[in-house]
Design goal:
Blueprint: H1 27-36, E1 51-52, H2 64-70, H3 81-94, E2 98-102, H4 105-116, E3 122-125, H5 130-138, E4 142-145, H6 166-176, E5 183-187, H7 200-213, E6 216-220, H8 224-234, H9 243-251, E7 256-260, E8 271-275, H10 278-291, H11 302-315, H12 318-337, E9 350-354, H13 355-358, H14 368-380, E10 382-383, E11 385-387, H15 389-392, E12 408-412, H16 420-435, E13 443-447, H17 453-456, E14 458-461
Bound molecules: pyridoxal-5'-phosphate (PLP).
């Protein structure tokens, strides 16, 4: 007789030792709160939020091992013990010999952009990230998106939507010349495409191309452990390798990386700038002292660096990264079971609702994703964020809005913070909003900050 195979669920490789109570509010309270926040969830008080899926940046729960590390913080001004512990782990896991700490990811982006970019340069990248592109532009570069077309299509099931289209890259190189491209800016998984990974094969093809063309490659390794997990799960030949092995192999062709430690490293603050280039390292240390702090603390406390070093060790454990991405998949699959349009394949750190489809009666200039984010908050106190026309900002040359193909609401999962029951509540709320979607009116923008307008922009109901 054939053995009956029953469903076997997995669960998180940890249990809860400390809890933080959260407030449950009424709809009337939330309606008032979102109006005061000008329909921008970034302007809400976190007290008024029930389940906070705004971002996974710095919102992680640290382990007892990390907290224990905080107690051995060596708060010396220069040469802290924890700096050397972290440096060792940067070498061990990212394979980069040289390193300066920074207060967060964008500080590392600032230094890289300042050192490598001259005004009039071009940066090619696999889609953009808000702060990354802004620092490249502030340093005088024009950003050119060379990601594959599938990345802009929320329905495409391509397993590596973070891949670069070599034809697009080649076209740019032919147009402006390789001399005008100081480096190729690669990220994985690509946040703005819905947390979509880049494949090892694509990295090899890029390496070959860039070697011939004489273009350097840099990697935004903020979520590189998640990318390594996707390679293990989806790419031929990697199933038997460890996450740590894949991570290191992935980064071999790159001259350097910048990292926001607030993601993969499961801490609340911190950044990393690491490189193989000794000359770059010397310049980075110089500028680190100017903008961040001495090159052995870079704006961080010793205890922060210890927590980062330990977080990195934990995240490359298979069960940890599997539980992290597994939770996101659970949410995405449950949303799909209600017929709610999401970006597929389900990404590494977040589920992205397709607001163009969800609120198909709204025009893009009525800010569908901004609107939907506010509506979900009002329904249940769940806080997501807009990733659409507001986040895309304006064209630096024409001054008009950028009109991105993707108009998304991002529900991002802090690492080790919420339970499956929190996800159930979230999905049920979104299903209710979906049921009532035809009644929803759009928004108009009444205040627009000059930079990164999604953070502080203000809106009114139409
Ligand atoms: C968060 C993030 C950054 C910026 O890092 P901060 O620590 O927020 O300054 C850069 N790149 C990616 C891919 C990110 O997710």
């Amino acid at each position: 007789m054939a053995k009956k195979i029953l469903k076997r669920s997995w669960a998180e490789p940890f249990k809860i030792k400390v809890v933080e109570p959260i407030k449950m509010t009424t709809r009337a309270v939330r309606e008032k709160a979102i109006k005061e926040a000008a329909y921008n969830t970034f302007l809400l008080r976190s007290e008024d939020v029930y389940i906070d899926l705004l971002t996974d940046s710095g919102t992680n729960a640290m382990s007892d091992y990390q907290w224990a590390g905080m107690m051995i913080g060596d708060e010396a001004y220069a040469g802290s013990k924890n700096f050397y512990t972290l440096w060792n782990n940067v070498k061990k896991y990212y394979g980069m010999p040289y390193f300066v700490p920074t207060h967060q990811g964008r500080a590392a982006e600032h230094l890289v952009s300042k050192i490598l970019i001259k005004p009039g340069d071009y940066i090619a990248g696999n889609m953009y990230f808000t702060t990354t592109r802004l620092h490249q532009e502030l340093a005088g570069a024009t950003f050119v998106d060379v990601i594959i077309d599938e990345a802009h299509n929320p329905q495409s099931q391509h397993p590596f939507k973070g891949n670069v289209d070599l034809k697009k890259l080649d076209k740019l190189v032919k147009e402006v010349g390789a001399k005008k491209i100081p480096y190729l800016s690669i990220a994985g998984p690509v946040n703005m495409a819905g947390g979509q990974p880049i494949s090892m094969q694509n990295i090899s093809e890029l390496t070959e191309y860039c070697k011939k063309a004489g273009i350097k490659m840099w990697f935004d390794a903020t979520r590189a452990v998640e990318n390594a997990y996707f390679i293990k799960e989806r790419e031929k030949g990697y199933a038997e390798k460890t996450i740590a092995q894949i991570l290191k192999e992935m980064l071999v062709p790159f001259e350097g990386i910048w990292v926001s430690a607030k993601k993969d490293l499961m801490v609340n603050i911190g950044g990393i700038l690491a490189t193989r280039n000794k000359k770059f390292f010397a310049e980075a240390k110089n500028l680190c002292v100017v903008y961040e702090g001495l090159h052995t603390y870079g704006g961080l406390a010793g205890r922060d660096m210890e927590a980062m070093a330990r977080g990195l060790e934990e995240m490359v454990e298979y069960d940890t990264i599997k539980a992290r991405i597994g939770q996101v998949e659970y949410c995405g699959n449950k949303l799909k079971s209600y017929g709610i349009p999401i970006v597929e394949p389900i990404g590494g750190h977040a589920v992205f609702l397709d607001a163009k489809k969800f609120l198909s009666h709204l025009k893009q200039i009525e800010f569908p994703a901004q609107t939907l984010t506010a509506e979900i908050y009002v329904d249940s106190g769940v806080r997501g964020m807009e990733r659409g026309i507001v986040s895309a900002g304006r064209n630096a040359k024409t001054g008009d809005h950028n009109y991105p193909k993707l108009e998304l609401v991002r529900l991002t999962f802090p690492r080790r913070v919420y339970t499956q029951a929190h996800i159930d509540v979230t999905v049920e709320s979104i299903a209710q909003v979906y049921e009532d979607r035809k009644k929803i009116r759009g928004l108009k923008m009444i205040y627009e900050p000059k930079y990164l307008r999604f953070f502080q922009g203000r809106f009114e109901k139409l």
